[in-house]
């Protein structure tokens, strides 16, 4: 039964009373982190209006002890424990009126690490996009392989990968603009090592609001598939105004394609979005399919008109290539006249970095 306000009929009209239900049992706590004399556990966050009672005991003991009562956070670190010892934890929820729910089932046995045991440093971020994060860590002496776990803010640790042979891991299929933590542990001939401390929060990229205002929420790729705008997040962006029938565009487009692949070979990401001024969809499709670029959908006339106005484009003067930083600052308003080289791109990157540090 959900809480709320209920009404009943009296002789002189309606009267109201409020009902706050007793909280239900929640899932058992799970391991967050551990050390030689402490274990941190977490459980489902029920919201700001709830508090919690956390209890613990050694696995072979019958006596439960209160670790914290009450606490407002769903992550608690229990200190002053014994090294290399297993414990279980349970938790219950109290609502805003002070009513306690039932205790959860006991957790799985959670162990402190051995005293003096070596522990890996937290993983470091070494690459990102709108839907993936790449982490790395220092090799652990004697490690045969590694396990990685990750978690979003206010969620539980989840396995990212097991038996990883190297010291680099790419976690795919993440949500744009979401912060994630990572931890890693080694596997040695003697068994599993301790989890490293949690990494800092690493956030996937999200498209700058100015691009969403200009483009809308979707583009199409060179195969004609609809893609979310976040596919271009975090990269230098070239907005390319062109038409397939235009003679100057027929000369410049192959140069731009070659520039794109040269940058790829140099390990640099450049996202080009075509704003087509073709008069028919067949010409639009043929032009787009001959490139590795994205495009504003042909039938989105409002977005194309919006971009032409924002970029001050005269349809009689084509092609036109404007380069923007990932956060939307204009870096080059006439890139069709630039020397398309890695050196030029690095100049744009430096300008983008200066804008970022200035803000």
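-> sequence recovered:
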């Amino acid at each position: 039964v959900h809480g709320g306000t209920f009404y009943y009929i009296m002789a002189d009209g309606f009267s109201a009373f409020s009902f706050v239900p007793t909280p239900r049992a929640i899932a058992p706590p799970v391991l967050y982190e551990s050390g030689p004399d402490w274990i941190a556990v977490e459980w489902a966050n029920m919201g700001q209006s709830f508090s919690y009672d956390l209890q613990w005991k050694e696995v072979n003991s019958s006596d439960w002890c209160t670790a914290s009562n009450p606490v407002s956070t769903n992550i608690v670190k229990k200190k002053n424990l014994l090294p290399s010892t297993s414990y279980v934890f349970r938790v219950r929820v109290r609502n805003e009126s002070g009513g306690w729910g039932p205790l959860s089932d006991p957790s799985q046995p959670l162990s402190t690490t051995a005293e003096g045991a070596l522990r890996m440093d937290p993983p470091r971020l070494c690459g990102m996009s709108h839907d993936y994060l790449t982490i790395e860590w220092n090799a652990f002496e004697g490690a045969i392989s590694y396990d990685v776990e990750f978690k979003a803010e206010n969620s539980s640790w989840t396995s990212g990968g097991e038996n990883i042979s190297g010291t680099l891991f790419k976690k795919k299929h993440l949500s744009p603009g979401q912060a994630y933590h990572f931890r890693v542990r080694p596997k040695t001939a003697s068994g599993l090592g301790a989890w490293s401390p949690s990494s800092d929060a690493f956030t996937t990229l999200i498209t700058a609001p100015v691009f969403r205002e200009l483009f809308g929420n979707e583009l199409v790729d060179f195969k004609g598939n609809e893609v979310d705008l976040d596919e271009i997040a975090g990269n230098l962006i070239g907005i390319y105004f062109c038409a397939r029938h235009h003679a100057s565009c027929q000369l410049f487009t192959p140069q731009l394609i070659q520039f794109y692949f040269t940058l790829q070979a140099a390990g640099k990401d450049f996202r080009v979005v075509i704003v087509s001024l073709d008069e028919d969809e067949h010409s639009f499709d043929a032009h787009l399919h001959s490139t590795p670029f994205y495009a504003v959908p042909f039938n989105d006339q409002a977005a194309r008109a919006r971009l032409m106005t924002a970029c001050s484009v005269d349809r009689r003067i084509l092609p036109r290539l404007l380069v923007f930083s990932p956060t939307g600052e204009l870096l080059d308003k006439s890139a069709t006249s630039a020397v398309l080289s890695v050196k030029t791109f690095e100049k744009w990157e430096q300008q983008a970095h200066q804008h970022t540090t200035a803000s």
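The chain has a mean pLDDT of 90.
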